[in-house]
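FAQ: What does the model actually see?

It sees only this:
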Amino acid sequence: MQLSKKAEYGLRAIIQLGMARDLGRELLSVNELAQSNGLPIKFLERVLMDLRTAGYIETRRGKAGGYSLSKCASEIKMGDVVRSLDGRLAPICCASEYAYQRCSCPDEAHCGLRMLMIDVRNAIARILDRYTLAQVVEVTLRKLRRDGAPVPFLGSLPVVLEPTRPDHPADPEAGFLASLSLLENQGV
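And it is asked to produce this:
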């Protein structure tokens, strides 16, 4: 499975909106979202409208307007966001549950490639459906805190993130799943 640019940009935006909410900023402008990720504004606006239509974000018009999450980050499953933007999670169309299309194989029921790709689809879906936006935000903010890195959309605002507690390391080098598993095992 390869994410489209639409899904990639949408996931980046929704993660930043989750981080903003977690840090006390309810709204981010499209300019802030685009600049912090180096994304083209016009394309990002279309992606944000798709996320709005899917019910993940809402907009507020006007000078003090912007985008915000429309529901709690713990209610947003990452797999659902990907499906809303890209459709199927399967690497080939005949292995998809949501966007099935018949392939050119003469015996689909006994096709080894299809059976393998169904396992791949199921593994991808299990991982994406297991984690919520809140969990992704938590690991991301822990890494920023650990590294003393600035939060991209806060610009020059003086924000001090609490250092990561040593009993909750978030190390993406060990893998996102390892970071979340460690947090889950410690009851966080």
